Amino acid sequence: MIEEVNKKPAADRSVGELVTDLTDEVKRLVRDEMRLAVFELQRKGKKMGVGAGLFGAAGLFALFGAGTLVAAAVLALALVVPGWLAAVLVAVALFLVAGVAALIGKKEVTQGVPPVPEEAISGVRGDVETVKQGVHS
User: Fold this and answer.
1) d(CA 81, CA 47)
2) Are 74 and 90 in contact (CB under 8 A)?
3) Alpha-helix runs per DSSP H in 78-117
4) For the chain, how many structural domains are there in total?
5) Range of 107's domain?
6) What pTM was computed for the model?
7) Which UniProt keywords apply (predicted)?
8) Which tens digit of pLDDT belongs to each residue from 40-91?
9) How many C-beta atoms surround the C-beta of residue 71 within 10 A?
10) Whose CA is closest to 59, among 102, 80, 15, 51?
11) DSSP state of 78
12) Is the residue at 9 inside a domain?
């Protein structure tokens, strides 16, 4: 910014000086847009980290609850069949549910999309349009 005060007006400058300035400005603009993209990805990453931590805690408590329900199912089934058979039947049912969940989960993960720095991309597109308008003027 301080250099701009000491520069000659654009009308008094040579084409070479103007091209050099344009090159410098484009470099600075690209660096700024890259910083914006990094900042945006960091911000989104932090939110994803907090969300994943809370989701993990919820999963842990759900696991405790599910374990208690499994024990209740084994005890209830043990009233009809021997205890060992009740435990085996409940375990087989749980393995079936786990297999189905794993297949569905694998399908969902393969369809996932990595995060995109939307603000930075939008900014770059706007900058390109501004430069195009300036060149055509």
Assistant:
1) 49
2) yes
3) 83-110
4) 1
5) 16-111
6) 0.42
7) Membrane, Transmembrane, Transmembrane helix
8) 888 888 888 888 899 999 999 999 999 999 999 999 999 999 999 999 999 9
9) 12
10) 51
11) T
12) no
